[in-house]
Specification:
Rossmann fold; about 220 residues
Length: about 220
Amino acid sequence: MTQKTALVTGASRGIGKAIAEQLGKDGARLLVPSRVELDLLSDHSIDIFLQELDESVDILVNDAGINRIGDFSTYSDADLQDTMRTNLMSPIRLARGLIPGMMQRKYGRIVNISSIWSIISKPGRLPYSVTKGGLNAFTRSLAVELAPFNILVNAVAPGYVNTELTRQNNTEQDLDNIRKTIPMQRLAEPEEIARLVAFLCSEQNTYLTGQCLLIDGGYTCQ
């Protein structure tokens, strides 16, 4: 990835941080804007960020996302709108702003971080599942449109990952129970997700596009 520039959202912690670190190790120049620099809940912030961007972006990783767990009937319109804007609309807007340059250079890699909850679901995750399912559809549609320009678009759908957010949403007993339901008997580490994303972003990936790759230790195979 030497001489390639990668924009990674949600890089301050968890999977996003691991992805940024892996891309950096592989030689990419990193753009990892903070929320002050790029507020994904604000269309204006996204527009300003894109307008002020003074370098070409070859790789876009849409990792930032929110998952407010709760019964669907308790979700306010604001909760629904925030989830939709962060998880689906902001990746679309960022891609729309960066794709023209990729098309001109005949090179690009876009990876959207989806979730197993886009394929299966469980109580309390309806808005999250809806947005991640939409992200998968966006990935497939964009891949078809951009393939002639050597722009490869894929999604990665992690299962349970050992991150701060996972630990916030589950008690230690919950995590023990979760491990027992995973064929690998453990949660993924963020670095394992990052290595898959790095391959999809690299020049080693020359033909894989339009796919949603599950990385869940076999959880969805049961």
